[in-house]
Amino acid sequence: MPDVTVFRDVLRDGFQQTELPWTPWTEPGREGVEFVVLWGPGHAGEEDSASLLLRFPPGAHGDFHEHLGHELMLVLDGTLDHSDGRRFHRGDLVVEEPGTRHQMSSATGCTVLAVRARPASPRTPEAGEITTGVGAGAPAPADAA
């Protein structure tokens, strides 16, 4: 019979979730990000998709990459900064289409649920693709009120 895993009270600071098996993400271009694999390639045979809990301490960042499939990011706590200057807060659900390119970071720290339909591929940013420094996302239009 397939397993069912329950993670209680994930809508809180990931650094308070000490019972989870957080692992440092040590790939090139990533700094300070930790993750918990919910499922990933190989968990279900030929599964290409992956789901992760991510936590970014203040100033942490991922690599710059391109999505080969859809990605869904739900901010569970804190503030997530997009390399194009947008900033996402707790409760924001971000869905990116295949071909989107970005680097995610957090100036203040955050916890995120990330679900990818297919893996992402590291890329080198082109001129204009990173409009703010890592962890320095500009206020989103809704923030400017």
Structural class: mainly beta
Strand residue percentage: 35-45%
Distance between the amino and carboxyl termini: 51 Å
> What proportion of the residues is helical, as a percent range?
under 10%
Order of helices and strands: EEEEEEEEEEE
How would you describe the oligomerization state of the chains in this entry?
single chain
Average pLDDT across residues? Answer: 86
Unreliable segments of 5+ consecutive residues: none
Shape: globular
What's the total count of β strands? 11
Largest β-sheet summary: 8 strands, antiparallel
Radius of gyration: 15 Å
Count, helices: 0
Describe, in plain words, how this protein is organized in 3D.
The protein has 145 residues and is an all-beta fold. The protein has no helices and eleven strands. Strands 1, 2, 3, 5, 6, 7, 9 and 10 form an eight-stranded antiparallel β-sheet that branches. The radius of gyration is 15 Å and the shape is globular. The relative contact order is 0.23. The model has no long low-confidence stretch (mean pLDDT 86).
Secondary structure layout:
Layout: E1 23-24, E2 34-39, E3 50-56, E4 65-67, E5 71-82, E6 87-89, E7 93-96, E8 101-102, E9 104-105, E10 110-116, E11 120-122
Antiparallel strand pairs: 1-2, 2-3, 3-10, 4-8, 4-11, 5-6, 5-7, 5-9, 5-10
